[in-house]
Write a structure and sequence with these properties.
binds flavin-adenine dinucleotide; eight-stranded mixed β-sheet; globular; alpha+beta
Length: about 500
């Protein structure tokens, strides 16, 4: 940054789905863009999702038709613009009570109609035999059948890296492991930039690049428009305003593939607290989630509690009958939803009832805050945000094919680790283990065992020495404890 440009049209704070979406939208409209992320890409919420690109069966049940419709339009765009990273997923809702099949069938018929020509696959009412074939291990006692529906599934981290690649291709810049400390205002009080600090010092392994090594000194970037896309942290840059972001923890367990063999996901239509729950085949494992628990404030590494583990396994066991080994927890992870309230964050009430519709606010002159929403609608959120200042430059992302990041193998090999570090912005061991490969999320024990080899390959690519290796291994060990169920709440 010392030698780079320090004036941009747009400065985006936050490198999750929202911020990267805004940076891509603005770059492809011809603005000069810098995005600053305090940690790694998607470090907070955007890599901890349930990995569904969906209209949201639950929102349909709540009668939020416009959100479902908007999400279904974006679902079909993502399937088209990021094929391979986003793919169709069949889901089945099993029915055990009289009338349930017809009720769910009607709901899914409406879901398909709302998708119009963006339909992924037609929903279908299934008999008991077909339902059991789709969901091996499903409890047969009292099974009346089920309803098959289709949505999209993805690897959230891979889509984020694909967004970064696309931003860079469009001429934008992405700076990770740098924090925006405070906003800068011009003499008229308009936000005109920010003070930024490196979060870790990085050594560059190319000797002729010595001048571009980052310092730990703060520096200033000026910008005509600043966008606050900091998700669960959004209220920090809205200090003059009533807090609007509420935080709700959602936890997942990662189980062996044998928990739900086959290619179809199970959608549990009603939990004891009135939610829906998913069991989804994902990257050779089974993802079980999620919970919805209001918490007090933002936190980068929320922990899955023992109560949540019990809640999730209890509901899984209600529907599937498999040997205990198939429900052995391979990893666990939690994320916080950035939910926007209209009444102010202190108003209380159930977080599951809060709308997932996004909010765009001109917080003060020069500063736009983009809050709430969901992964599925990230592109639309970005379009709406950039429209505020685009002055007639049309949006170019609706049909934009993303520059897709190839998947990382597990176990990782040296060329893949070099790619993560040299081409895809990974700087810390956890970046590679958690958000380039998904090793930590899929098999926490295996990831911990492989860490010494992976960090040695990283050090080689980054030109780092033994002290760095030791520090990274210690930090990763502490982080991994949470995924192993040994973390501190
Ligand atoms: C458990 C769970 C399951 C979900 N499942 C789904 C799903 O299946 N489908 C779906 O569509 N949606 C899902 N969502 C919702 C979706 O994940 C979120 O809406 C979305 O990821 C939010 O993205 P974001 O960019 O706004 O926030 P984030 O991803 O949190 O990004 C904000 C970024 O800002 C950075 N930041 C903060 N302060 C600063 C600063 N001062 N300087 C620099 N950077 C800063 C943070 O480090 C962070 O990376 C789920 C959410 C949760 C929690």
């Amino acid at each position: 940054m010392k030698s780079a440009k320090t004036r941009y049209d747009v400065l985006v704070i936050g490198g999750g789905a929202t911020g990267l979406g805004v940076a891509l939208d603005a770059s492809t409209r011809g603005f000069s863009v810098l995005l600053v992320e305090q940690g790694d890409i998607g470090q907070a919420t955007s890599t901890r999702s349930t990995k569904l690109i969906h209209g949201g069966v639950r929102y349909l049940k709540q009668g939020n038709i416009s959100l479902v419709r908007e999400s279904l339009v974006e679902r079909s765009r993502l399937l088209q613009n990021a094929p391979d990273v986003v793919h169709p997923l069949p889901l089945v809702i099993p029915a055990y009570k009289r009338g349930q099949r017809a009720f769910f069938g009607l709901g899914m018929w409406i879901y398909d109609r709302l998708a119009k020509d963006g339909i992924v696959g037609a929903s279908k009412i299934l008999g008991p035999e077909e339902t059991a074939d789709r969901l091996p291990g499903l409890r047969p006692e009292g099974l009346r059948g089920g309803v098959l529906l289709w949505d999209g599934q993805f690897d959230d981290a891979r889509l984020l890296v694909s967004l970064v690649r696309s931003i860079c291709k469009a001429g934008g810049s992405v700076l990770t492991h740098h924090r925006v400390n405070q906003l800068r205002r011009d003499p008229n009080g308009r936000v005109c930039g920010a003070e930024i600090s490196p979060v870790i010092a990085i050594q560059n392994n190319a000797p002729d690049d010595a001048d571009t090594q980052q310092t730990t000194q703060p520096f200033v970037v000026e910008a005509t428009h600043v966008v606050n896309a900091t998700g669960i942290f959004a209220d920090r840059f809205r200090s003059q305003r009533t807090a609007r972001v509420r935080h709700s923890r959602g936890s997942h367990l990662v189980l062996p593939r044998s928990a739900l063999p086959g290619d179809t996901a199970l959608l549990v239509p009603e939990t004891r607290d009135g939610r829906v729950l998913f069991m989804i085949p994902w990257l050779g494992a089974t993802l079980l989630g999620t919970t919805d628990i209001a918490v007090d404030g933002p936190r980068l590494e929320p922990q899955v509690t023992p109560e949540e583990v019990n809640y999730l396994l209890e509901h899984a066991r209600k529907y599937i009958d498999v040997p205990d080994a198939a429900l052995e927890i391979r990893s666990r992870f939690a994320g916080l939803r950035p939910l926007v309230t209209r009444q102010g964050a202190s108003a209380g009430g159930a977080t599951s009832k809060l709308s997932r519709k996004h909010v765009i606010e001109e917080t003060e002159p020069g500063l736009l805050s983009v809050m709430g929403g969901k992964w599925t609608t990230y592109r639309r959120m970005a379009e709406d945000a950039v429209d505020v200042f685009a002055a007639g430059r049309p949006c170019a992302t609706r049909d934009l094919a993303l520059d897709l990041s190839p998947p990382y193998p597990i176990p990782l090999d040296q060329p893949s680790v070099r790619r993560a570090v040299l081409e895809e912005h990974a700087r810390r061991l956890e970046d590679v283990m958690s958000r380039r490969s998904r090793w930590l999320l899929l098999d926490a024990v295996g990831a911990v065992a492989a860490a010494p080899q992976v960090v040695a390959w990283m050090a080689d690519a980054l030109g780092e020495g033994p002290a760095w290796i030791e520090r990274e291994l210690a930090a990763f060990g502490e982080l991994a404890a949470g995924y192993l169920g040994q973390g501190r709440a």
